[in-house]
Amino acid sequence: MDGETEAGRTREIPCARRALGRRAGTNAAIYAAQRCAKDSRGWFAETYNAARLKEFGIENEFAQDNHAFSSEAGIVRGLHFQRPPAAQAKLVHALRGAIFDVAVDLRKKSASYGKFVSAKLSAAVGEQLFIPAGFAHGYCTLDADTEVLYKVDAAYAPAAEGGIVWNDSDLAISWPVDAKKARLSEKDLALPRFRDFESPF
To answer: CB-side exposure of 163: number of CA atoms within 13 Å?
Structure first.
């Protein structure tokens, strides 16, 4: 969301949320709608097309699909990443319900280091967010019984797991849930703050 911190500045990267299919100005993420055909019987959606993604500079070879179910609105997962050489790029979309999706730039040499991209992804519209390696990723469910599918270009590697606490004050992400009402795993609640974090990217 386009919120400002108490210091009067935002840490959000300008993102092409309102122009589907355009590259974000920082090359941080690409936001694109699925192609969908509807008629009286229902609908047919094209959820992955390598040639179309290549038009936006995405040539990753995805290695694994992850499917997550969340029973309630206000469930937060993240902010997660995998360290090199197991770093992951992700292509995220909602299969059911909707999420507030966030990616934080952890690339030390990037002009947008420590800033974030956010987007609402819903099954009803079919938006997708591509997140390159070198970003921490997390999301908050906006609906009950939400399902999220994301493709990754490297397999899950538990020894390479890392993360940053979701509501870090320095990142100043405008989450759509109050911290007292958000539901997280104990593991995610124990993640370090951004200022105490040494990026491996």
So the answer is: 19
CB 21 within 8 A of CB 127: no
d(CA 67, CA 93) in angstroms, rounded, equals 10
Q: Exposed, middle or buried by CB within 10 Å (0-12, 13-18, 19+), for 166?
A: buried
Q: Which one is catalytic: 31, 93, 139, 150?
A: 150
Domain extent for 186:
30-196
**Which is catalytic among the residues 80, 93, 137, 139?**
80
pLDDT in tens, 103-156: 999 999 988 889 898 889 999 888 888 899 999 999 999 999 999 999 999 999
Task: Tell me the CATH number at 126.
Answer: 2.60.120.10
Per-residue confidence band for 32, with pLDDT thresholds at 50, 70 and 90: low
- 71 by Cβ neighbours in 10 Å (0-12 / 13-18 / 19+) ranks as exposed
Supply the pTM of this predicted model: 0.85
Residue 48 is among the residues annotated as catalytic for this protein: no
Alpha carbon distance 14, 3 (integer Å): 12
Whether 96 is covered by a domain: the verdict is yes
Backbone CA torsion sign across 38, 41, 45, 51: negative
Told to judge if 150 belongs to the known catalytic residues of this protein, a careful annotator would answer yes
In the chain, DSSP finds a helix count (H) and a strand count (E) of 2, 12
Q: Which of 17-21, 47-51, 163-167 has the lowest mean pLDDT?
A: 17-21
Domain count, the chain: 1
